[in-house]
Automatic annotation (TrEMBL):
Pfam families per the UniProt record, alphabetical: DUF3723 (PF12520)
Chain residue ranges for the region called Disordered: 548-578
UniProt-listed InterPro entries: DUF3723
Biased composition range(s): Basic and acidic residues: 548-561
Identification of the protein by name: Uncharacterized protein
Organism: Penicillium frequentans
Length: 730
């Protein structure tokens, strides 16, 4: 967001004011039936809540039609003025307009107010005041005047005096459009107007949150791909975007957004050109409902269809085809609104996973990448991603299953209590029988068994313990009951603990999905699959994540949006079912994956093996002289000595005799890598090295301080290498 130059703004204001003065004709009465509104992004995403608010307002205070703030601006082409639309003067306070019966005036503002007034006013009193602007025909003006006219119309359309404030979804779309992220031209002045609207409330930090979100290109691009489904955006919450980025769970969130896109693409039979016709009312009615599983959901949606509220913008034949597909959806239909609620549940598991590694202050990477970094074998991160996804899936599963027991997060109050359902529940009758420390020891045992190294604070040698056996159960206990649609998203409730624990157990997730109702266990399994389908798919399943989506009959095409093209969604991106997964092996063989040439080594950066006592790490250093200088200074300050090593197959690493003593000075490291890019250096902690000034800080020994520094550098170099790794993966 660049600041507006006052000279630029003054020039535009002067031209718009002059245009307004020369093209304004009069204010006049007109019958409401002659007004028509363009259905832009705001109208498509609208769930009609603001119309209902205005209906209540007009019922209390009546319709104020003469006040200038409530006048509806309309534009009439010059060729139609005085011919199909003409003023009629009389003795009244306002002139009237004579309008041909088949002619509609293009209204630019107050759509919700007029919709509410049509219901409030008596049939014989259905009139309103319009401000008439006569615009030039396209063939009668040059490019500059055409641009000015578009700016003028834009200034009239983008006013929201009868809204509490423009909704977040509209603000997000308009800022993206005017910032040039979509297919429209960049318009700095218009973009700044919307940035101001976003921060209109005193103390609001939404502008800061949105700018921070834009810096995450992957999340920003993926979220923009959903703009083609305009009805989703009433559920947008810009005030939560800082939590979305701060969680560093990019992969799970992108997976959830992909599922949203694929679900709605399935409903329209794979026709991306029909996605923009899905309106906000429809999205609000179908979200979180599973019509194939729930008879109540099916009955509710059938009633909405019969009343014409469901998929109202589609032709009759298309609507019935969509209805048949909708009836086959057997999982809670995800939307942006459900995402921001389910994010709360993901946050619980994320708070467990982020403790497994050190996140550097100046280099941020995702939770998945951080967990891959603690695998106790020297292979590139990219290769770990290809082979360790089943392990990562297991860690996420355990974190979802016991996240509340491992952290201070609280479940929502019991489902059976209708009041204050969001109040943390303090009842511990169903609490897990093991202490939190024992649970963490068990989790660390899982990590070590799969070849991962827990962080230093969790490497205690206490023996791992076995968890109590879970008893199969579900909630509600009565098979004829189910959880209401309004309570299917977000953190689970206190009285569903037992069902949640079993539903997310490895045993339960390996079983084929046989749910016949929307229960707590079903919801826990579904939200886990919604976030982690990308890991489930890579583990070898070939079935759809939900039986309601038939992968063979869902055309996958590139989405199209008037302002935001959606990226391709391939079958490989579609989340998958857990039912066919096999347990991940404890041991893995990586020999075939280790690069065997200088060229392949070079792709992942320079290699350095670092040893502290009996502990050894292999780091892949970015090809960056500034970084290398700082890194080598850290080696010097922490008493490391650097050697040149050769890799001899079958003999391991041996000190090279090709250089004097095999020792290299810190200042020579970068030039050495430049001359010998496939060379592998070794830095070894020297306990007898010269003492440093900070040796005794916090009571650390030199070796402890070196170990802490090494852990920090491992995380830091991983963050620096991620762009190169991603380039190689692409």
């Amino acid at each position: 967001m660049a600041p507006t130059r006052q000279s630029e703004l003054a020039d535009l204001e002067r031209r718009l004011f002059s245009y307004h003065q020369s093209h304004f004709q009069l204010s006049a009465r007109v019958h409401l039936s002659h007004l028509t509104f363009e259905k832009g992004f705001r109208a498509w995403m609208d769930d009609r809540d603001n119309v209902q608010r205005l209906e209540k307002t007009l019922k209390i205070q009546g319709c104020r039609r003469l006040m200038g703030d409530n006048h509806v601006p309309v534009v009439v082409p010059r060729s139609d003025w005085e011919r199909r639309v003409s003023p009629r003067y009389g003795n009244g306070i306002m002139p009237s307009l004579n309008v041909d019966l088949d002619y509609r005036l293009r209204a630019l503002d107050h759509e919700n107010l007029i919709a509410a007034a049509r219901k409030k006013l008596d049939p014989e009193d259905q009139w309103w005041i319009v401000d008439v602007y006569v615009t030039d025909d396209e063939e009668d003006q040059d490019l500059d005047r055409d641009l000015l006219q578009k700016k003028f119309v834009q200034s009239l359309k983008e006013r929201y005096p009868n809204d509490n404030r423009p909704p977040d979804g509209l603000i997000y779309e308009r800022i993206n459009y005017y910032e040039g992220y979509l297919d429209g031209p960049e318009d700095r002045l218009a973009a700044n107007n919307w940035w101001v609207i976003l921060q209109a409330v005193a103390g609001s930090k939404k502008g800061r949150y949105l700018r921070r979100f834009f810096k995450n290109a992957a999340l920003h691009r993926k979220l923009n791909s959903l703009l083609v489904i305009r009805g989703l955006w009433e559920g947008m919450r810009i005030g939560l975007l800082h939590k979305v980025t701060a969680m560093h769970c990019d992969e799970p969130m992108i997976c959830y957004w992909d599922l949203i896109f694929q679900t709605f693409l399935t409903l329209v039979g794979g026709r991306t050109d029909l996605l923009p016709l899905i309106d906000g009312v429809t999205v609000g009615l179908i979200q979180a409902r599973a019509p194939k599983l729930s008879a109540n959901d099916l009955q509710f949606l059938q009633l909405q269809l019969d009343e014409g509220k469901l998929f109202a913008e589609f032709e009759e034949g298309q609507r019935m085809d969509i209805w048949e597909r909708l009836k086959q959806i057997d999982y809670p239909i995800p939307t942006l609104k459900t995402f921001f609620k389910d994010r709360l549940y993901l946050e619980v598991a994320q708070s467990v996973m982020k403790r497994l590694f050190i996140q550097p202050r100046d280099e941020k990477f995702t939770i998945d990448t951080g967990v891959y970094s603690i695998f106790d074998t020297a292979i590139p991160i990219l290769l770990r991603k290809e082979r360790l996804r089943a392990d990562l899936l297991e860690f996420w599963r355990f974190s979802f299953q016991y996240g509340f027991e491992l952290t201070d997060f609280q479940r929502r109050k019991c489902l059976k209590s209708p009041d204050n359902e969001h109040t943390p529940d303090q009842d511990t009758d169903q609490a897990f029988p093991l202490h939190r420390s024992a649970m963490w020891r068990h989790f660390c045992g899982i990590l070590r068994a799969r070849g991962f190294r827990p962080p230093g604070s969790m490497t205690q040698s206490s023996p791992a313990i076995e968890l109590p056996r879970l008893v199969p159960c579900d909630y509600p206990e009565d098979p004829s009951q189910e959880i209401d649609a309004a309570k299917r998203c977000g953190k689970p409730f206190a009285d569903t603990r037992q069902a949640d624990w079993f539903a997310l157990s490895a045993e339960a997730l390996q079983q084929p999905e046989t749910a016949t109702r929307v229960s707590a266990a079903f919801l826990r399994r579904w939200v886990f699959k919604a976030f982690f389908g990308y890991l489930i798919d890579s583990a070898g399943s070939d079935t759809s994540v939900h039986r309601g989506i038939d992968a063979d009959h869902t055309p996958i095409a590139e989405g199209h949006h008037p302002t935001a093209p959606a990226p391709p969604h391939t079958a490989a991106e579609t989340p998958r079912d857990l039912s066919t997964l096999s347990p991940a092996p404890v041991a893995n063989s990586f020999a075939p994956l280790i690069p065997d040439s200088a060229e392949s080594l070079q792709r992942f950066g320079y290699i350095m093996h670092i040893t502290v006592g009996r502990h050894r790490e292999t780091l892949y250093l970015p090809i960056d002289q500034c970084f290398m200088t700082q890194f080598c200074e850290g080696l010097r300050q922490h008493n490391f000595q650097i050697f040149v090593f050769d890799v001899t197959p079958g003999t391991g690493y041996e000190v090279s005799t090709g250089m004097a003593g095999g020792v290299i000075h810190e200042e020579e490291v970068y030039s050495h890598y430049m001359d010998f890019p496939a060379s592998e250096l070794h830095a070894e902690f020297n306990a007898d090295g010269p003492p440093r000034k900070r040796t005794q800080i916090d009571g650390e020994t030199p070796m402890q301080r070196a170990m802490r520094w090494l852990e920090e550098q491992k995380a830091k170099t991983l963050g620096r290498m991620m762009p190169q790794i991603m380039d190689v993966s692409v």
